[in-house]
Amino acid sequence: MFVNNPELLLTMYHDLEVTAQNGESKIIKSFSSGELFFHSIFNKFWGNYLNKQSVVIQPTVYSDKTTFLNWEVSTKFLNAGTNDEGNTDILSLAYDNPALYQATVVQKYGDTIGEMYRKIWENTEAKLMRIAARYNQEQKMATGTDPGLGYVDVLNRLNES
């Protein structure tokens, strides 16, 4: 989703210490699973949404299981069929118009995945063309003749040998 919309990612930070339901501040490794759940849902998700109209997601946890990476993400990013691009709040839309919400999210997800695969393919194809050019150059040096092969033919020849 951030491939086409890097502005959605407002900030990144680590959770090293958090505040529990009772207001006590602790380091993460001493939290119970219930306290971590409360912190994730109430502090990071709903607290941010209600105060800042953003949500915090946790894309990963470091292998030591004591340091969490957090991304603060804007909830105002979908056009949602209005002339108000960037001003439609996704969570409000989910409540107000579930059908439009679903169609918009599916479209945004599809656009993002499509763009990601397009960029991956462009990079892969560029690398394959460099391999083909190098193969053709080496063949010309060895035989005196440039075979002028595209990457598909080069890959087939390399697989045969």
Textual characterization of the structure:
The chain has 161 residues and is an alpha+beta fold. It folds into two domains: 1-74, no CATH class; 80-145, no CATH class. 52% of the residues lie in helices and 20% in strands. It has four helices and seven strands; from the N terminus they run βββαββββααα. The strands form three sheets. It has a three-stranded antiparallel β-sheet with strand order 1-5-4, covered by helices on one side. A two-stranded antiparallel ribbon has the order 2-3. Helix 2 packs across helix 3 (98-143) and helix 3 (98-143) crosses helix 4 (151-160). The model has no long low-confidence stretch (mean pLDDT 79).
DSSP E strands, number? 7
From the structure provided, what is the oligomeric state, counting identical versus distinct chains? single chain
* Biggest pleated sheet: 3 strands, antiparallel
Alpha-carbon distance between the two ends: 42 Å
Short structural summary:
With 161 residues, the chain is α+β, with helices and mostly antiparallel strands.
Secondary-structure topology with pairs:
Layout: E1 9-15, E2 17-19, E3 25-27, H1 33-52, E4 54-61, E5 68-74, E6 76-78, E7 88-89, H2 90-96, H3 98-143, H4 151-160
Antiparallel strand pairs: 1-5, 2-3, 4-5, 6-7
Question: Keywords for this structure?
Answer:
161 residues, alpha+beta, 2 domains, 3-stranded antiparallel beta sheet, 4 helices, elongated
